[in-house]
Amino acid sequence: MTETRVLSKRILQAPLPDLKVGPGKTTYSELHDVAFVGTLSPWPDFEISVQACYDAQELSRSSTAVVTPGLYILEPEFVYIGDKYGVRRRFQQAIGQVLGVALAAQGVNLRFGDFACSGLEYNNPPDVVGLSTVGQPRYELRLLGTLKTPWVAEHSLTRAYDNPGLLRHLLGQPLLYMGDLSTAFGFLSTYDETISSGRSNWVPGNGWHNTRQLSIQLTSQSHGSGPSVTMRQCMFYVAKLASEQGPVNNQTPSAQWVVRY
Fold first, then answer.
1. Which pLDDT value is given to residue 64?
2. Per-block mean pLDDT, blocks of 10 residues, the chain (261 long)
3. Is residue 179 part of a domain?
4. How many CB atoms lie within 10 A of CB 60?
5. Cβ distance 146 to 174 under 8 Å?
6. DSSP 1-60
7. Is 219 a member of any domain?
8. Structural domain of 41
9. What's the total number of domains in the chain?
10. Reduced to 3 states, what is the DSSP secondary structure of residue 234?
11. Which domain of life is it from (predicted)?
12. How many angstroms separate the CA atoms of 150 and 43, rounded?
């Protein structure tokens, strides 16, 4: 079978295929009983930075960016889903696999995977991780993400984004992971909507300080006017940033990072 190379540019510009939700599906909230208590602030010039990162890439055909014919990564979904595990599989297909092509083509040292790939032990681990190679066969955790079903109202990121109490509840789980697992970047996603988070206080030469402060940004795949940059462009940008930052020396106890209730 002839292999077909796909332009990284086309991959990143393409919107995510709509999820195909089955007639039977979960209806319960999967939010954990934790809330973030640190400082949250908007991610400065996020979309401008995403676009600048995209424009700076030499987006061309690459022998490392190879997929089979059919361009299935850009096609509509044909697989029904009805729970979080289905969302996880479609996320890894539409974002993890697709961005893997673009990241490899651009020489970015980060690949998506599941938590078990990290070799770390952690109870109730994140759904998605980004790993960088730091020596064969050693990999380092640089990015992590938590996924929720988009059809459950309590998971709506748009609804919570302007409601501080709801937002802190939604972000409690992924930001707890970031603190415990020493990553600088993370995200919470329903596939349709994603909140990216990054520690906003990196001081060159001094490392991280006041690690309870994070910057966040909401990206939506909703129909209509839509964002000026696509979900894949945003995730590419965050993945690239994460690939360039090693583990965070987080000295803040988790009790000062999140509260449990």
1. 46
2. 52 89 97 93 92 82 44 72 97 93 90 96 96 87 98 96 94 94 95 90 43 76 62 95 88 83 85
3. yes
4. 12
5. yes
6. ---EE--HHHHHHSPPPPPEE-SS---S----SEEE-SEEEE-TTHHHHHHHHHHHS---
7. yes
8. 36-48+82-96+108-260
9. 1
10. helix
11. Eukaryota
12. 23
